[in-house]
Amino acid sequence: MKVLANDGISKSGILALEKGGFEVITTKVAQEQVANFVNENNVSVVLVRSATKVRKDIIDACPGLKIIGRGGVGMDNIDVDYAKSKGIHVINTPASSSESVAELVFAHLFSGVRFLHDSNRNMPLEGDTNFEGLKKAYANGIELRGKTLGIVGIGRIGQATAKMALGLGMKVIAADSFIPQVDIKVAFFDGQSITTTIVSQSLESLFKESDFITLHVPAQDGYIIGEKELAIMKDGIGIVNCARGGVIDEVALVKALDSGKVLFAGLDVFENEPTPEMAILMNHKISLTPHIGAATGEAQDRIGTELASQIISLMK
Fold first, then answer.
1. Are 198 and 173 in contact (CB under 8 A)?
2. Distance (Å, rounded) from C-alpha 79 to C-alpha 101?
3. Cys-Cys with 312: which of 7, 9, 20, 37 at CB 3.0–4.6 Å?
4. Active site (annotated) includes residue 117
5. Distance CA 194, CA 177 (A)
6. Would you list the DSSP string of 217-271?
7. Is residue 55 among the annotated active site residues?
8. Terminal CA-CA length for the chain
9. Nearest partner of 142 among 212, 210, 206, judged by Cα
10. Cβ distance 223 to 251 under 8 Å?
């Protein structure tokens, strides 16, 4: 039985699938050729990440398809309900990348509060001629300890982010329409741990109380943060989005950054991927990464082996 891992899969995932009796194909097939390739090569399982889309047209064109797998959490590039209606299993790996995404959130937070994103741009240009000027420009750093982090969406990734925030000594608040409260266990290297309960509150109150906000929600029909929401936030707020593009109104965000309402933003995802707006890319108050939340070796190993385990279990 053949598996097409069109957006790649870790070596550990390949080995696990091969041990389970599957042939793994890692050839990158262009989006418009996926259906033909699947049919011509008798592929039973298609694995994707965020690049390849598996829509109704591919599902209809590939009657031999038995499993569609998403390496990661979000399923917005797959027509999940339609696939299931055709008897196709749809799987993902919701727990595998939580820590990796949470760490990237804090990479953006630390970058923002200490101006690393802008300093790293300007030091190569002016470090030898304007050292004292740059030192003065980046002198007003902010400590995260003691500040309030508002987490919009307290699912697995939100909870991983909360653990890191609590470890730093931050106050954590959350808003989630589906999770009224959650117990967060912060485990330490020596086996000890602490547990605290976070009770979900309204989005409006979270926006008003937070010093920093991080988003951990699936793709939305509309914006979660727009001009109205930005207006009720504290002056000097920091905002991070490592979830999905389109949950923040980027035009309103740039306006708020330019006015000083928002101190900085950290963006791993964008409204127009893979071609983000130049107004976003060139803004010196935005820390930028190209949708790499789950792009760690450890996460990819977990994703690959978890996908393999689910596929083997389903096809037994």
1. yes
2. 24
3. 20
4. no
5. 26
6. ----SS-SB-HHHHHHSPTTEEEEE-S-TTSB-HHHHHHHHHHTSEEEEEESS-T
7. no
8. 12
9. 212
10. no
Write the CA distances from 109 to 78, 81, 89, 226, integer angstroms.
Answer: 31, 36, 38, 20
**Which of helix, strand or coil describes residue 14?**
helix
SS3 125: helix
E strand or H helix that includes residue 301: helix 297-315
Active site residue 273: yes
CB of 170 closer than 8 Å to CB of 186: no
Biggest CA pair distance of the chain: 67
Pick the catalytic residue from 103, 209, 273, 277.
Answer: 273
CB atoms within 10 A of CB 153: 24
Write down the catalytic residue from 244, 250, 271, 302. 244
pLDDT in tens, 77-95: 999 999 999 999 999 998 8
Q: What are phi and psi of 50, to 5 degrees?
A: -100, -15
Contact between 109 and 212 under an 8 Å Cβ cutoff? The reply is yes
Alpha carbon 249 to its chain centroid, in Å, reads: 17
For strands 148-152 and 193-199, give the pairing: unpaired
* Other beta carbons within 10 Å of 179: 16
**pLDDT tens track for 225-279:** 999 999 999 999 999 999 999 999 999 999 999 999 999 999 999 999 999 999 9
> What are the residues facing 197 on neighbouring strands?
183
- Characterize the bridge pairing of strands 262-267 and 237-241: parallel
The model's pTM:
0.90
Question: Going by C-beta distance under 8 Å and a sequence separation of 6 or more, which residues neighbour residue 2?
Answer: 22, 23, 24, 25, 41, 42, 43, 44, 45
Residue 293: other Cβ atoms inside 10 A: 23
Distance CA 214, CA 174 (A): 10
Given the residues 156, 216, 291, 302, select the one marked as catalytic. Answer: 291
Length of the chain: 316
Tokens of residue 56, six digits: 């109704």
